[in-house]
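Page 37, continued from 36.
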């Protein structure tokens, strides 16, 4: 994975909602052109001009649903991207996981003030980590201080860079393996004293769901979120290495630079991300999910208030429980999450009332400006 994708998966760039050749451009999906969205289309074109192979996006607002694509889904054949493309959503998975934990709290099956040690005895221990001093809430809002396993240098060489990736792309990693990598490092800070994005937090959250329900976290996501909302394009792949059709190819430089050869990285075992970022969806499903979440279809008011209780990151950004709030240049606040995994950079956001949502994907991980697409949709002239 490139530096850019590592930033997207690790979310080092907290000031953005994601880490984040030319072929038939401007291919439009259902209701294309409805309401304009010309600024958004131009931002998508700019991403392709910057080197992203292709972009697919869908927005929903009071005027209806608008979808558009730019660039290609397959650089070999020139096949364009589709508005219905399924793609790996990376850390957008975190909002689904946080939603399930909050549902379990609403049912009285756990408290977010429970310690990690209560649910996962002995798992968070070593090099100064102590699960008895960390709460489930601190996992979800990234104030636990737990080391981020994806920042481990050996892990990076093995799974993010070219030689390691092609040797290990089909490896199956258990969540315990991932936590073990984190435990080999010292904590980033004392629990509750600062903020740092750590994928390990959500690996642990997935394990807590399994412990509390007796079922894998993916099964609970399907039962509690995917099925009730009829998210037909959304899945928790586990160890499945393919992306269901319709879908495009995913591309990466697999290096620490943004230059050099481009590689097809579509096929990989997503167990390396587990509950921190393994899910697959499409733009329409993501819009439906975030709209339903903010309109109260998934959580009681108390839990939704907890989810949107944020830790400030800077003057324009704050992080809640599996959600980020960003204040855009025009004063609009959007809520959602970004995600990156090999060859795939995605964002999904909505307004607090759920009335205006946007989800999109780049099928390349080394270029393009996701923040510009969001700004264009909500602040550009449409």
């Amino acid at each position: 994975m490139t530096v850019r994708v590592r930033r997207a998966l690790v979310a080092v760039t907290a000031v953005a909602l994601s880490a984040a050749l030319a072929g038939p451009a401007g291919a439009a999906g259902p209701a294309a052109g409805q309401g304009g969205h010309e600024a958004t289309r131009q931002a998508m074109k700019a991403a392709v001009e910057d080197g992203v192979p292709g972009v697919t996006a869908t927005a929903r607002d009071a005027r209806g649903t608008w979808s558009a694509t730019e660039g290609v889904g397959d650089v070999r054949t020139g096949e364009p991207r589709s508005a219905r493309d399924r793609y790996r959503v990376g850390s957008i998975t975190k909002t689904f996981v946080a939603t399930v934990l909050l549902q379990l709290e609403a049912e009285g099956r756990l408290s977010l003030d429970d310690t990690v040690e209560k649910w996962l005895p002995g798992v968070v221990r070593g090099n100064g980590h102590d699960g008895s001093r960390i709460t489930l809430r601190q996992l979800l809002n990234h104030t636990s201080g737990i080391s981020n396993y994806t920042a481990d240098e050996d892990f990076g060489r093995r799974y993010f860079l070219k030689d390691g990736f092609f040797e290990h792309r089909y490896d199956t990693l258990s969540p315990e393996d991932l936590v073990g990598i984190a435990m080999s490092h010292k904590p980033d800070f004392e629990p509750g004293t600062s903020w740092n994005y750590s994928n390990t937090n959500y690996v642990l959250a997935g394990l807590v769901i399994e412990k509390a329900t007796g079922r894998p976290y993916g099964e609970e996501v399907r039962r509690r979120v995917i099925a009730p909302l009829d998210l037909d394009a959304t899945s928790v792949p586990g160890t499945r290495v393919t992306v269901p059709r319709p879908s495009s190819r995913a591309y990466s430089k697999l290096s620490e630079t943004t230059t050099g050869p481009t590689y097809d990285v579509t096929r990989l075992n997503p167990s390396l991300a587990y509950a921190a970022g393994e899910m697959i969806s499409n733009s329409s499903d993501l819009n439906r999910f975030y709209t339903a979440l903010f309109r109260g279809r998934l959580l009681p008011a108390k839990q939704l208030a907890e989810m949107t209780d944020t830790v400030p990151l800077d003057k324009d950004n704050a992080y809640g429980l599996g959600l980020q709030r960003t204040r855009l240049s025009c004063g609009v606040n959007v809520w959602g999450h970004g995600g990156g995994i090999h060859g795939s950079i995605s964002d999904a956001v909505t307004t607090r009332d759920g009335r205006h949502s946007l989800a999109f994907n780049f099928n390349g991980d080394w270029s393009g400006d996701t923040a510009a697409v969001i700004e264009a949709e909500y602040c550009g002239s449409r």
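The chain has 13 helices and 14 strands. Flag for discussion at group meeting. Confidence is low (pLDDT under 50) at residues 1-35.
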